[in-house]
Recover the amino acids of this structure.
């Protein structure tokens, strides 16, 4: 492999790494958002369960 080809390959790989980092960050951001929504749903569900338990025990 010639030096020029190697340099081009390195540049392409660095570009690929940058793209992967960008998409990884987007995925992590989306994952955090979904986790937050799930946490909210769980909290609301637990709150509803407590309300049901209190009203059924009366």
């Amino acid at each position: 492999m010639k030096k020029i080809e190697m340099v081009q390959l390195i540049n392409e790989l660095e570009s690929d790494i940058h793209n992967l980092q960008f998409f990884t960050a987007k995925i992590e951001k989306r994952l955090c958002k979904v986790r937050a929504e799930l946490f909210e749903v769980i909290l609301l569900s637990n709150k509803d369960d407590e309300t049901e338990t209190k009203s059924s025990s009366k």
Summary: The first helix runs from residue 3 to 56.
